Amino acid sequence: MIKIFKTFGGYLQIAELEDKCWINVTQPTQEEVKKLSTEFKLPEDILCDILDADERPRVEVDDDYTLIIMRIPIKSNSNGVPFQTVPLGIFLAKNFTLTLCIQDNEILPMEEPASYKEGYSQVTDEINFILRLSLRSGKIYLKYLKEVNRMTAAIEQDLEKSIKNRELNQLLRMEKCLVYFITSIKANEIILAKLRNLKKITTEINEDLLEDAMIENKQALEMAQIYSDIQSGMMDAFASVISNNLNVVMKQLTLISIILMIPTLIASLFGMNVPNYLENSMWAMPEIIVFSLVLSIIGVLSFRKRHWF
Q1: N or C: which end of the chain has fewer CB atoms below 10 A?
Q2: Is residue 239 domain-shared with residue 254, that is, in the same domain?
Q3: Which of 76-80, 182-186, 262-266 has the lowest average pLDDT?
Q4: What whole-number distance in Å separates Cα of residue 47 and Cα of residue 89?
């Protein structure tokens, strides 16, 4: 989908390309990619690179444009992983600025792309627009990290009583999310550092905004690393917990088998086709049953005394 706005932030949508406009592209089709290449004179190979989910963040300077690729967080259900990161490409051309992402996201949502109504004044230059994108990206990282922590806490409660690997697999997916976040945030920090020294930038960089963006990204990185370290140790601990829970279940089943073996043994002995001095007694069956129950109760009490049950 391609939307063209008169200014940054999506306040006024227009139909045709104008000078200093902003073009927001999300989930483009093949026809839209060709349109971007032919009408806006953008290299098709660069567009395909941005649409590659594994593309790394970088800054690329050309005579006709400046390309900045950063990685942003998105919600995902791929392979059970709740969150992952995708590249967001920003083309700074002479007449327009274009943002391109392979999926819809909360950084530049296609349905409501006005990202700067929350107390921000309208953005007028490209560099501060990129800095605000980075600042917003850091806030979304922090938001998703809190959700990952909440989901992890819910998995922990299930793990305490689990004897299966399902919860461990869920923790592994949470760990995968954190690895995605840590790798992407580190690369985004390098991009922010390069923006300050980019020679092609002619507008003055808002140092306060740059510092805010770097602080927000640093905070997200530290939080992701802390959560990752906690989960790494927690997975080792809970692997032992699952093994211990399984041993407890096997012990209880073994004790039950021993208790059930007592009446089975007595019934086998008195059921043999040999004289046992009770074959003529009318109370033989009740006596054998009572005797079996008494021995079984003694066995249960003996196990409970040793805290095996």
Answers
A1: N
A2: no
A3: 76-80
A4: 8
